[in-house]
Amino acid sequence: MAPLPTSKEGSSNDHTDVETKAESEGVTLNDTRPQTAPTNSRRYRKLYIIGGAVAAIAVVALGLGLGLGLGLKHKSTNYVTTNSSFLLDPSFEVTSTPTTRYYEWVVEEVNGSPDGFERPMLVVNNQFPGPLVEVNSGDELVVNVFNKMSNGTTIHWHGQLQNGTNFMDGTNGITQCPIPPGMNFTYRFTINPSQYGTFWWHAHASTQYTDGIYGPIVIHSPDEPIYGTYDRDALVILSDWYHDMSVGLLTQYLSTSGIDGSNYGGFNPGAEPPPDSGLINGKMTGSALDLEPNLRYRLRLINMGTLTQFMFSVDEHVLSVVEADGISLEPVNVHRVPIHVAQRYSVILNTNQTAGSYNIRAEMQEVCYKLANPNLNKMVLGTMTYGTTPTTPNTVDWSDSLPQECLDLNSTMVVPAIPMNPPNSTQDVLVSMSFQQTFDSGGNQVLGFMNNTSWDAESSNPTILQFARTGVQTVFDSSQLVVVNDNITVVDLIMNNYDDSSHPFHLHGHVFWILGEGDGSYQPGISPLSLINPPRRDTLTIPGYGYIVIRFITDNPGLWAFHCHIGWHMAAGLLMQFASLPSKVQEFVIPSYMEQQCSMQSGGSLIGKRDYRWLGLGM
Ligand code: C2O
User: Fold this and answer.
1) At 17, is the secondary structure helix, strand, or coil?
2) Which residues form the Plastocyanin-like domain (predicted)?
3) How many angstroms separate the alpha carbon of residue 200 from the centre of ligand 1?
4) Domain boundaries along the sequence of the chain
5) Which of 62-71, 76-85, 228-237, 368-377: highest mean pLDDT?
6) Whole-number mean pLDDT of the chain?
């Protein structure tokens, strides 16, 4: 594989180089376009050099609380978001000839008001939602992430297979350590040539993405079954939003008194902070898609939220669902699409009704929350217009009733367009997930458990490095539940949910088959399993007090997280790992600066055990 950027001695802050390059070439840092491949690679490489000793001292100083006044104070400028940026450029060349796409990202703290309430938030390149990554299958992606914040971060590429590049998966405590403040990390990997569709990227360190570090990934391919069946592409990013930094909410959530201050009266363990609002393309109001009449639009729906399942619809327009999590589907017509955290759907919308403005609806499914927010406006509206000048729509909602549970689109409607039957399984992995009271903290803190383990990020000793150093290992910290397979194994992951809420679970680095799901506990030999072209995806919702059976092959070497994507729940411990082919993990050429960045986390000054305090702003 291509050489990775290596740490260079004595260099101070390569962000200066980035700015210098940007200025000298007349490109602003807010530019979302990928940089074209540099002709002089030596010159470009300079951009990857990470800070050495000087930055290390700065970080230690920060860790000791001496960092104030070092220029890390967040800007009170606002971020940028324009409605037109969610319409994809139709001139993007879809080809099967791979190229390399370069992006320069700066993550920083700014003030913003997506729903009208100003608060500090975290953004990439001053954009919210963050920059679009648009590639073809097989392209090499290079994203140089410079962390200008006062806390560590990582960027995860949700749904990317990362075959052979698990160390680019961007998962704190599993595949890397947080990128320290003032330093950078260059993510470089090849988009799997067999992958296409709608994906996203987000920070993967505690609940940090809740504060704004997320954005879309679109992978085109002439091989995609639905390629050529639509005229234009548009993004519809749904997210829930809070008025407080996630650190404060998480602190309260994990405290012995719980988010409602009463330890849920003992009745509601795991009750999450309910959001303050919902956003469509980064706005609570004023989000608009200005379309052309008589075209077929592929709306790429992505739920980048932390807790909320949305019901998506467009008044008076039937939606044809054609993709779920990167898998093309046999088209199925619906009025509304339920989309849980981290899931994606593509729907085809035909702009063939009367010219005018129509409501786009993203209704927040409060039935999924354990704790309601009486002030929440659940119906988030945007405007779709074609054939006329936009006005405030007076169109009406579909009249079909909303589901009373938050479940995925029925699996009979998620039929892969390219049929694939799973091979026979060779291993059953039984997992139960629950919330339980613990007494570790001297009180009765409620944590999430996978079997008997409540996960905590090993932020200075990620499991990938534990394997890279020792090869196959079977002993882990008590906070790590790791299923190790050094042979290619076909795993049936059977999970029972002992919590009353449903949970969207994601498996990194794989597409799994969904063999079964239902109420109650899984009954071997009784619960029905579907083995003929079952749904395939990377994120599915396990019903409250229900079960799921998913099947996948451990042929992708690395450490892969399987976790609830509700930010609060992952931070409370609902995460386990699959260690696949660890002998191969040992052969990875992991960039040496990753080890260096890990060593900088030592002493607990940046991050300690279940230490969510580090998420706060450095002001
Ligand atoms: Cu969207 Cu663990 O990731």
Assistant:
1) helix
2) 107-223, 234-367, 473-582
3) 9
4) 427-616
5) 228-237
6) 85
